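Contributing: when you submit paired examples, paste them exactly as shown. First protein:
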Amino acid sequence: MISTYHTQQTTYNKPELMAPAGDWTMLRAAVSNGADAVYFGLDKLNMRAKAANFKVDELPEIISYCKEHNVKTYLTLNTIVFEEELSELEEIVIAAKKNNVDAIICSDLAVADLCFKYQMPFCISTQSSISNSLAADVYKRMGAVRIVLARECSLEEIKKIRAKTDLEIEAFIHGAMCIAVSGRCFMSHHLFGKSANRGECVQPCRRVYEAYDSSVDKSLIMGEDYVMSPKDLCTIKFIDQLIESGIDSFKIEGRKRAPEYVAKVVSVYRQAIDLYFSQKEGVPKNLLTDEKKKELLSELETVYNRGFSSGFYFDVPSSEEYAGVHGSRATTRKVYVGKVANYFKDIEIAHIILETGEINVDDNILIIGDTTGVIETKIEMMNVNDKVHPTAKKGDEITLKIPTLVRRNDKVYLIKNIN
């Protein structure tokens, strides 16, 4: 059931928060940090072929885990499909239906037709560049239950589309953007034979380039402007406006990023949405203040990002505001320090062996594992080689209280501030 928020004479639906899941660690991180839904690909026919992805025979376990936590599942089959792949595609659609995947995200009409044939709910991907209500109605007649709008749609355009279609609307709220229209780029294929439209993009747009003048045999390295490398989309400053526009599902990009990125971004947007829909004594009370947005933005800045942009939500962005970045602008980085040797569930104590580096009381650490997901915690006190001590170094064995279950061989990372 979709919860609603009433303010004066207006009612807003609480949007679904959808997170990327490139592997089991990311999936569990997304679920444990408050995602309402996850989207994931199999090892074939999805736009993130370079992500770890899942196997078809993992579908029962994925769906079971997500249903246990009341999280919806969306399978991405959103690449171009060639003739020789139609049989395999049909098998995947049948498997998705059999295992109760909530919906398939697709762009190729062959996928949509097979979904219709097997009564499998489907959503039209952003790859189809839907940017008006007439296009939405065409897909509705084909049986689509949801559309992912083109990333080039402004907030005002989204409102107009929302007013004219009853299809569910999904839109991106955070993550990487592409210099090409809705990601339909041929540069990677032209240079490296790896097609972005088949999920194989090697991101040549993010690189340093050399301009060569053959008449004088001279060249210049163009490594400052990065005009083809967009900043990341970030909507935390105006997430309330997106809620009020009537968007049904907020989508986070990032199936190829690290699990701690998924954990942090999902957690931040979960807080923002819940604060907007908070209540006091049964009466709706929006607690998402400008000050709180600033705090949440600071949290988002701690994980991988290329700098932040509002994308196309408020008109076509200038080149300075949209692109020109290289590498991460994160304010922190994770540094491997050791692994979990044991966890004593009854007393919530983790036994950790430091294999490198140093950690101290008041440091923040990450514990990451395929089954554990991502746990972030601050060291309040620790025993070092069976004695209370504020510092531990390589070779030390430490114990500290961690209220969330972690597991043997989970990796431990120190979160370091970047000056």
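Second protein:
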Amino acid sequence: AKSDRVRQSIIRHAFRYWIGRNETLNDAPVLQKAHQDYQKSGGSMKALILSLLTSDAFLYRKVDPKQI
């Protein structure tokens, strides 16, 4: 559980859940910042979610009117 691979997997799955789509190459900076915030906080999910919900990927996402 201390491996980078596991942390990256957790971050990718959190991204997909909270952003509502799969990540793209353009999302690399968001994922990198989320990874940094997660590590700095000692593995806090709260810090990870906060990082994702304050990212441009979340703030400027397109909402499909059919899903509302």
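If you have annotations for the second protein, write them as plain sentences, like these:
DSSP finds four helices and no strands in the chain.
The helical segments are 4-19, 28-40, 45-53, 56-59.
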